[in-house]
Design a protein that fits this description.
By secondary structure, the chain is mostly helical. It folds into 2 domains: about 60 residues; about 210 residues, f41 fragment of flagellin, N-terminal domain (Up-down Bundle). About 65% of the residues lie in helices and about 10% in strands. It has 8 helices and 6 strands, in the order αααββββββααααα. α1 packs antiparallel against α7, α2 packs antiparallel against α3 and α2 runs antiparallel to α6. The longest helix is centred in the first third of the chain and has 56 residues. It starts with 6 loop residues before the first helix and ends with a helix. The relative contact order is 0.15. The model has no long low-confidence stretch (mean pLDDT about 85). It comes from Sanguibacter antarcticus.
Length: about 300
Amino acid sequence: MITRVTHQSTQRMSLANMQANLAKMSDLQSQASSGKLINKASDDPAKAAEAMALRKEQRATEQYARNAQDGVSWLNTVDSAIQSSVDFMQRARDLTVQGANTGAIGAAGRDALAVEIEGIRDALLGQANTTYIGRSVFAGTANGSAFTTATDPVTGDVSYTAATVHGTVERRVGENTTVRVDADGAAVFGDGAASVFSLLTNIAADLRNPGVNVSTRLTEIDSRIQSMLSVGSSVGARTNQLTAAQDTLSNQSMTLASDLSGVEDIDLAQTIIELQMQEVGYKAALGAAARVLQPSLMDYLQ
């Protein structure tokens, strides 16, 4: 059986083939100009879904990295305040030892020591109320200062009260990992009559009383220094945890970027070769169609 090929069917087939060639060339041009294999989800639904999942992980990793950096800044602030407080307490201890040597220091000297210890107390209060970006690092999630003072209107005595901590400040550095980035002010500085501020106030009062031997206060000072160092060790451990998390997140970010590139980035050299091949094929198709489809006057009259 002989199949009859009409001029019109040949024309339609040639135009359809050239249109398909042109569409493929357009896709390759779009890929070459954007550098991406997927410019819309319909280009490759499976890879588009994979790319979206990878981008979601990227955004989460970037947020965890920002959280870790913020946490390190918090803990560095806490650590600096604790270290300064320990230095102040060491100085207060040295002054107390000097004040205990009653044979080598007179009343005027003891009074001078008391004044310096009161200055240390006030400096410690400043450290206890240290803030980071406007928030106290020793008050947890509570608003305001970590320690407040109140003066008795009758006796003139000053009391020091730690803020009530309703919750700790934490930073999420992984899907199931959070790290505490603040410190308990009461654990570092004590509270009320048991606070370091009250202790130094009492030592200053003892120094002004010739009949009191302040050497008995050294044990209390050592106890408060030990509490500060204990919390400082915890802060250091948490800082190391966040630093390790930062390294992990950095590696994870690079891995995700590589995976995403493998899914949606083009092979530029291969794409250019394919584009050139499509251009050659399209020109050849145009030439062949021009030779085969010779329009006559009747074609135009139709």
